[in-house]
Design a protein that fits this description.
heterodimer, A: about 200 residues, mainly alpha, 7 helices, about 75% helix, B: elongated
C-alpha cells in the first residue's frame, strides 16, 4: 500500500504485540524499581530460636569435629527455614520469590557465603577452628549487608550488627564461640526478625 | 503541524479522554494519560515503592530532568501521583508517591492490555 506521498507504508505494529511489549515494560520497570520484600521476619525469629538451641546443645562438646557437625546441621536447618519462610511470604504477597529483586538478592548474598564455606574448610584443616565463629558471623553479615541494600533497611542494619559481632569474635578469639554464635545467629535474628515481621508484614 | 497541535489538544483533555480501540477489546477504554511510555514507567515504578525521589526516578527510567518533570506534572494534575517537596540539608528534594486513583488507573491499564492480548489470541 502507498502512503499519501507515494512512499510504501511499513507494516503496522500488531495491536497485541504492542500490548505485550507494554506489559513487558511495566514488569521490567517494576522489577528494577522494586526491593526484595520477601525477607522473612518470622522465619528469622525461628532461625534465631534454633540457633539458641544449637548453641546450648553444642556447648558441652569439646571435640571440634562434633561441634562443627552440630553447627553444620544448624546451618542447613537455617537455610531450610529461611527459604521456606521467604517462599511463603512471597506467595502471600503475590510476588514470585525469584523475581528481579529476588534474583539480585541471591546473587549478591551468595559470594560471601561461598567464601565462608572455603575459609571454614581451610581454617579447620589448619587447626584454627577457634576463629570459625568470628568468620561465620563476619561473612554472613557481609552477605546480608550486600544483599540488604536491595531490600528493606532493617536487613542491611542486621548485617552490620553481624559484621560487628564477627569482628569482635576474630579480634578476641578467647571469647567462648557458642556464646558469640548464640548472640549473633540467635539474638540478632530474633531481634531483627521481630522488627521485620512487625514493620514489613511477617 | 496541524496533526501535532491536534495531538497536544487531545493530550490536554486529561485522563477523562479515552480512545476506543478497534480490536474486540475496544469495548474498554484506553487511558491515554497512562498509555504514554514514560508516564507508564513512572506509575509502574511508584506502584512497587512507597515513595521515590526525583533523581531515583530519573536514573531508573533513564530520562532527562525536563522530560521527567513534564510527565510527572501531567500525572500529578490528573491526581494519579502526589508530589512533596522538602530540603535534605540545603538540597531541595522532590518525592513522588502513587495515589489510590493512580494505582487503580494502572490496574485498569494492565487489565486492558491483558484483555487485548487475550482477544487477539482467541481470534
Amino acid at each position: 500500500m502507498l502512503g499519501a506521498m507515494g512512499v510504501p507504508r511499513s507494516k503496522p505494529v500488531e495491536l497485541h504485540a504492542h500490548a505485550m511489549d507494554n506489559l513487558r515494560y511495566i514488569r521490567g520497570t517494576m522489577e528494577r524499581a522494586g526491593s526484595f520484600t520477601a525477607v522473612p521476619g518470622l522465619g528469622g525469629v525461628l532461625m534465631g530460636s534454633t540457633a539458641l538451641v544449637t548453641a546450648w546443645i553444642a556447648t558441652p562438646f569439646r571435640g571440634v569435629g562434633h561441634w562443627m557437625t552440630i553447627w553444620a546441621i544448624e546451618c542447613f536447618v537455617g537455610i531450610l527455614i529461611g527459604t521456606t519462610a521467604a517462599a511463603m511470604k512471597s506467595r502471600r504477597m503475590n510476588s514470585p520469590l525469584l523475581n528481579g529483586p529476588g534474583r539480585k538478592f541471591l546473587a549478591v548474598f551468595s559470594p560471601a557465603i561461598f567464601a565462608g564455606v572455603v575459609l571454614t574448610i581451610a581454617f579447620h584443616q589448619a587447626d584454627l577452628s577457634w576463629y570459625l565463629p568470628g568468620i561465620w558471623l563476619l561473612l554472613y553479615g557481609t552477605a546480608v549487608v550486600s544483599a540488604g541494600w536491595g531490600s528493606v533497611r532493617a536487613v542491611a542494619l542486621m548485617g552490620i550488627c553481624f559484621m560487628v559481632a564477627g569482628t569482635i569474635g576474630l579480634l578476641m578469639p578467647e571469647l567462648p564461640g557458642d556464646v558469640l554464635l548464640a548472640a549473633g545467629f540467635g539474638g540478632l535474628h530474633i531481634v531483627f526478625g521481630t522488627i521485620i515481621a512487625v514493620k514489613h508484614g511477617g | 503541524m496541524a496533526g501535532k497541535q491536534n495531538a497536544v489538544r487531545k493530550e490536554r483533555r486529561g485522563p477523562e479522554f479515552a480512545v476506543a480501540l478497534t480490536a474486540p477489546a475496544g469495548a474498554q477504554k484506553l487511558d491515554r494519560l497512562v498509555h504514554e511510555r514514560l508516564r507508564l514507567g513512572i506509575l509502574s515504578a511508584l506502584s512497587v515503592n512507597e515513595t521515590l525521589a526525583f533523581n531515583e526516578l530519573k536514573k531508573l527510567l533513564e530520562t532527562t530532568d525536563g522530560n521527567l518533570s513534564v510527565h510527572a506534572r501531567k500525572l500529578e494534575e490528573a491526581g494519579y501521583i502526589s508530589c512533596s517537596k522538602s530540603f535534605e540539608g540545603r538540597m531541595p528534594k522532590t518525592e513522588y508517591r502513587i495515589t489510590q486513583s493512580g494505582r487503580r488507573a494502572l490496574e485498569r491499564y494492565l487489565d486492558h492490555m491483558e484483555s487485548l492480548i487475550q482477544a487477539m489470541r482467541e481470534r
